[in-house]
Amino acid sequence: xxxxxxxxxxxxxxxxxxxxxxxxxxxxxxxxxxxxxxxxxxxxxxxxxxxxxxxxxxxxxxxxxxxxxxxxxxxxxxxxxxxxxxxxxxxxxxxxxxxxxxxxxxxxxxxxxxxxxxxxxxxxxxxxxxxxxxxxxxxxxxxxxxxxxxxxxxxxxxxxxxxxxxxxxxxxxxxxxxxxxxxxxxxxxxxxxxxxxxxxxxxxxxxxxxxxxxxxxxx
Length: 219
What we know:
Blueprint: H1 3-32, E1 48-51, E2 61-64, E3 69-73, E4 78-83, E5 85-86, H2 88-91, E6 95-104, H3 112-117, E7 126-128, E8 131-133, E9 145-151, E10 154-161, E11 178-179, H4 182-191, E12 197-200
Parallel strand pairs: 2-12, 10-11
Antiparallel strand pairs: 1-4, 2-3, 3-4, 5-11, 6-9, 6-12, 7-8, 9-10
């Protein structure tokens, strides 16, 4: 084979090799790509009417943090069950309380320790009536509605609220108390008058209907 012909063959082989490597890279990208995480709530935590025998009276809210469910007790041994996401504060308190007040599209006031831990949050904060916080609205992490729980004249700092992250329902999350989808918290809000009794189960006793009321209180 003449030298020129040899050079042309080698160039052709090199070109084919580069193309093969490029195609192999594309195939590898295709096969190693991951399915995007769903931005929707897990359907297994959808709101539904369930059998829930319990001695507490109809109208009571029972929160089971360990199972990621909230129950609004109905008559006849039934309850409306809502899926919830549970934050660190949601696991940190158990006992009984009442709904002291409710708010639509509530403002959010993060505790000072959170702002110290996550200083980037300050860029979203502004001076509100009750301090530094984020105005209520679709971007607010507290969501569309909030129920505030008190024991007597003391705020438990325990909240039932909405979320703009529906995919976190059924999961443990880094912060917050008990979160529902905005649709579900709006439904619960409309069915819950001021003064409603709320029972929060201790995680160790979670997993079944209420048979008693835990009376511990977060210090």
